[in-house]
């Protein structure tokens, strides 16, 4: 009987309000890890306690901090019982308040063995990397995987640059941008990872196309093009009946890539589709006739007629771009729950997500 009581108490449960979703958490496991393993779309981004995307309120029960919340939460949040699910283990059954929790079952992440089988230059600082896995992986368009190499501490996360297949994908494509000072990208761009073996964990991420009737606005910056192309290529396979405007923010014309695939998406889309590249540092004396400046300003001038409370905005790229775009579209009528972002964090943000 005592053994039974010991086994019974070896794991605790989380209940998420107001959705009512419940799942168990093993000893030492974070709430986020347990939720993702159960296939739930837990809000998250960096997974290392830095971005704050997984913030929620502890309504009942006791947790153990895996790292100090005070590094990311302010005094009032700590006083109000706000926690980070990626850095919280359970000391009892708990109830959390996650108002924007979406009930969607995702493919639980798994571990794969992979080999880099192809590397292609897309621009001077971005490569397409193809990895062959030991078995097919299933994912939702817009998600990412974590890549680990034995010579580098920690994992790096990169979005799928392709649409999923019903039977899964044995080979996956990633767009990887060189990050100055980045260990993984440094080795990749120095040719040290050609035909190299890696560990792959995934899928992960809660970036996918939501159902709706309103217009779709997609915004990509740099290698943030990967999840946007994945999402739109998948969506183009079925009837949408929704107009779509896609912005691609780059520095110069030489930084634009994947244009042929975007053209194919436009041809396949069953409603009006506009592609608008925006260049921030194109030389003034060039013959570029497209839009210039920052992409949030371009949205305001070129897509304001598409923005309303029914519009869904999907934005991927560096945090300053995401913050600026979110502020712009919010001021133009897009509701906060219709703005979906995937921040590409790297060494410059103190993280190892994309470096």
SSE pattern: HEEHEEEHEEEEEEEEEHEEHEHEEHEHE
Q: Please state how the strands of the largest beta sheet are arranged side by side.
A: 13-12-15-10-11-14
Mean of residue pLDDT? Answer: 91
The Cα radius of gyration reads 21 Å
Structure description:
19% of the residues lie in helices and 34% in strands. The protein folds into three domains: 2-105, Beta-grasp domain (Ubiquitin-like (UB roll), Roll); 110-204, Elongation Factor Tu (Ef-tu), domain 3 (Beta Barrel); 216-349, Rossmann fold (3-Layer(aba) Sandwich), CATH 3.40.50.80. A six-stranded antiparallel sheet has the order 13-12-15-10-11-14. Strands 19-18-17-16-20-21 form a six-stranded parallel sheet, with helices on both faces. The longest helix has 13 residues, at 319-331. It is α/β, with parallel strands linked by helices. It contains eight helices and 21 strands.
How are the SSEs placed, and which strands pair?
Elements: H1 2-8, E1 12-17, E2 21-25, H2 31-37, E3 40-41, E4 55-60, E5 63-65, H3 75-79, E6 82-84, E7 88-90, E8 94-97, E9 102-105, E10 110-123, E11 126-137, E12 144-148, E13 156-159, E14 169-177, H4 183-189, E15 197-204, E16 216-221, H5 225-235, E17 244-250, H6 259-268, E18 273-279, E19 291-292, H7 295-302, E20 312-317, H8 319-331, E21 339-343
Parallel strand pairs: 1-8, 16-17, 16-20, 17-18, 18-19, 20-21
Antiparallel strand pairs: 1-2, 3-9, 4-6, 4-8, 5-7, 10-11, 10-15, 11-14, 12-13, 12-15
Helix pairs in contact: 7-8
